Amino acid sequence: MKVKHSAAIEHVQAVEQAMRRWQVMAGVGMLWLAGTATAQAPYVAIEARVDPQELAQVGLSPAQLQALNRLLREADARTPAAPVAAAPMTAPGVPAPGAMFPGLDDGPIRAKVTGQVDGWAPGTVFTLDNGQQWQVLKGEMTLKASRSNPDIVVVPGIAGRWFLQVDEDLPKARVFRIR
């Protein structure tokens, strides 16, 4: 039993060490990009750019550090100085960065529910005339009068949450898309 446990711990530690390596390498890459985007300054070794403790956690040997510094120095020498004033936000063909708050940047979905709506509870599925299906996750409501093929709005919320609104004056149901 103890052998399995220590093997799991070693696996987790190995994964964490690999993640730290990727973080440091990503940081080095960002520093390199920032350095080439501003002006052609003299190359600064990685040891001077990165926190010594983080660099030690990566576990690169002195020979590997030397090779990495050489590669980055050569890449700096090949890269012409970029003009600072008119740098575009994104290069052509490169997708724009993702939304800061997923869901909030999406617009509301306006459609009609196919069929009768008497109310909803967790598990209720709404099929819309645009082919989408939304299932209620939270919220419960019984309508005073049944509605046939009502207009609805599915409104985005924070962090990918969505809310189905049958009427502005009624509470919304928290929903998720199933199709």
Short note summarizing the structure:
The chain is α+β, with helices and mostly antiparallel strands and 179 residues long. 36% of the residues lie in helices and 23% in strands.
What does this structure look like?
The protein contains 4 helices and 8 strands; from the N terminus they run ααααββββββββ. The chain has 179 residues and is of the alpha+beta class. The longest helix is centred in the first third of the chain and has 37 residues, at 2-38. The model has no long low-confidence stretch (mean pLDDT 78).
Element pattern in H and E: HHHHEEEEEEEE
- Overall average pLDDT: 78
> Could you tell me the radius of gyration in angstroms?
27 Å
Number of helices: 4
In helices, the fraction of residues equals 25-40%
Residue ranges: pLDDT <50 for 5 or more in a row? none
What is the number of E strands? Answer: 8
List the strand order in the largest sheet.
Answer: 1-6-7-8-4-3
Distance between the termini: 45 Å
Structural class, from helix and strand content?
alpha+beta
Identify the overall geometry: elongated
List the main descriptive attributes of the protein structure presented here.
179 residues, alpha+beta, six-stranded antiparallel sheet, two-stranded antiparallel ribbon, 4 helices, 23% strand, elongated
